[in-house]
């Protein structure tokens, strides 16, 4: 177990190193000058040169990268090039909002996908299975932005039940907070439920056809005993993997949902920073997203090893 943990930690460090290289150098290849965007459309050459020196943009890229990494190792993510706000402060304001959306969306997707996936696998080729697969195919195929717009039109424009977007703090209004939360959570939950359903159903069908399941049935165990004790236990590692992967991707990649519903989370901040060429904010947001993905996948891998001793002995 310790050997696996150390191996994963080394992989985590290498992934974060390459992510830092990629986000730093690739983003600086894009057109646009943050100093010019800060000064306006027609700055004087003297003012532009002075601001670039102040922001450190006149130094070679490798020098800028080394300085950024050095500051990062000391816990300093830098400051926004637009208004000077600390990047760490900006991220700490946005991450809880994205985390809240991801948690509720994941819970909803599990509540939808797990019962329907289990039922579809047990009732293979029945109308329940065909209906569930049809709904899952719809959820898996429809683009996130299209589903978000459909829900917005239905519940906001036509029925006038929910606000079309925005964010209301729970401290301001509990009811208002819940209302602004419903549509983005529905969007996230439906899309991810379709993915979890497909993996769960196929995983259970694969286990059900194994020899040890037929042996368990031959011993006289009831159908639900076989499903609960043997099938579910052997399907659990793959289910943990897909849930952890979806959750980490939600935390780091909920850009479309947050943009459509004007949800001021990490994805929304990343897009706004890219548009304004705010290098330090984008670097901090992408790096934090990478950390989230890698750490959650590390936790998921360790959980799988605990639940499935066979993996422990093969590594």
Automatic annotation (TrEMBL):
Transmembrane parts of this sequence: 12-30, 101-122, 134-161, 181-200, 239-261, 281-307
KW Transmembrane (keyword) present:
yes
Domain (ABC transmembrane type-1): residue spans on this chain: 95-304
Where is this gene product found? Cell membrane
Entry keywords, A to Z: Cell membrane, Membrane, Transmembrane, Transmembrane helix, Transport
CDD domains cross-referenced by the UniProt entry = TM_PBP2
Q: How does it sit in the membrane?
A: Multi-pass membrane protein
Query: What sections of the sequence does the record tag as coiled-coil?
Result: none
Short name of one Pfam family for this protein?
A: BPD_transp_1_N
Q: Which family does it belong to?
A: Belongs to the binding-protein-dependent transport system permease family.
Q: Which PANTHER family does UniProt cross-reference here?
A: DIPEPTIDE TRANSPORT SYSTEM PERMEASE PROTEIN DPPB-RELATED
This one is known as: ABC transporter permease
**Protein species of origin:** Paenibacillus solisilvae
